[in-house]
Amino acid sequence: MAARHGARVWLALGIVYVVWGSTFIALAIVVRDLPPLLAMAARHLVAGGVLLAFALPRGDRRGDPVGRRQVGAALVFGALLFVGGHGGLAWAQQTVPAGVAALLVGSIPLWVALLDRVVLGRRLHLSAWAGVLLGFVGLAFLVDPFGEGSVDRLGALVILLGAASWAAGSLYSRGARLPRRPLVSAGLASLVGGVLLLAGSLLAGEPGEATLSRDSLLALGYLIVAGSFVGFTAYVWLLRVAPISLVATYAYVNPIVAVALGWALLGEELTAQMAAAGLAIVVAVALVVRVSGRPLERGRGLLRRRGSAAAVDVAA
Q1: CA separation (Å) from 15 to 67, 86, 147, 205, 238?
Q2: Which of 108, 196, 246, 299 has its CA 20 to 30 A from that of 11?
Q3: Which of 2, 3, 6, 9 has its CA nearest to residue 240?
Q4: Total Cβ atoms within 10 A of residue 112
Q5: Which residues of the chain have pLDDT under 70?
Q6: In the beta sheet, which residues pair with residue 301?
Q7: How far is Cα 123 from Cα 301, in angstroms, rounded to an integer?
Q8: Angle between helices 98-105 and 153-175 (to 10 degrees)
Q9: How far, in Å, CA of 269 to CA of 260, rounded?
Q10: DSSP assignment, residue 57?
Q11: How far apart (Å, rounded) are the C-alpha atoms in residues 250 and 226?
């Protein structure tokens, strides 16, 4: 497969594996001193501003304008991904270990499959249904909602809701009137997401609670440079040149990387319960991702009636 896809593809894939897996470690360091919403606001304001400054002058500017409709779509998209997803994750990682957080975030493909079926009527293969069921069993075993587990249940719930929010945003983006240029779309969503995060931080009174430290600032810089620039650029390039089935493997490799780095760098505990739950989640995601590109006839969904030509347009 290495010869088939080329060394550059594997290098880019390795970057996505390691960089995006390591962002959970960086975030755990950031929220030791910096308030979560304020830190994520800084990350996305800087990342979004730089991406827009780079991408806006390039490409088909006349055929791909950025107007009120595009900003409105980016507002919804950015709120779901970066406020619900990243904001919730940062808040929860004040109490939830990085490795556990990564396993919970790894449920995003399960939420995508489930929401796509229930809301938009996309039928699932039997193996995908098995993956969804196995994944949620693994999540329940990890969180242990009715037992005496060590995972903070409120934090875990916030991360799971954030994963569902990210999945909803991903599905929303399919028909949203976002800019067609990928970097412009990503930069605009990141920028407006940063504005919303900053507003939430100000309302929560976070700026007065901030404590600047070298470690937190370096970790925040890593999130911006490595996570938002290097990792995202590699991911966008991979989507253009590599099979989607290969690119999608990041969804179940990233949690493994994060768990290993959390144990090695932060001294996080790796229990038998966590290992078993993590294995179930990773296998479940692999089952869902493996068949995600095999189309089936669409059925009935909350926003789609059987026999209609397309799902109801929910774009802003």
Answers
A1: 34, 20, 38, 36, 11
A2: 108
A3: 9
A4: 22
A5: 1-5, 146-149, 244-245, 292-316
A6: 304
A7: 9
A8: 40
A9: 10
A10: T
A11: 16
Cβ neighbour number for residue 2 with a 10 Å cutoff = 8
Q: Are 118 and 302 in contact (CB under 8 A)?
A: yes
Whole-number Å distance between alpha carbons of 131 and 115: 14
CA distance 10 to 3: 10
Distance between CA atoms of residues 121 and 116, nearest Å: 6
What are the tens digits of pLDDT across the range 129-152?
999 999 999 998 888 776 666 788
Amino acid 311: pLDDT: 36
- Secondary structure (3-state) at 42: helix
Whole-structure pTM value: 0.86
E strands, 200-289, in order: none
Both structure tokens of 261: 């780095």
pLDDT tens for residues 43-95?
999 999 999 999 888 877 777 788 899 999 999 999 999 999 999 999 999 99
pLDDT at 44: 95
Per-residue confidence (pLDDT) for residue 155, from 0 to 100: 95
User: Is 188 within 8 Å of 74 (Cβ atoms)?
Assistant: yes
Q: What angle do CA 169, 172, 175 make, to 5 degrees?
A: 150
Rounded to an integer, what distance in angstroms lies between the CA atom of residue 149 and that of residue 147? 6
Contact 246/50 with Cβ under 8 angstroms?
no
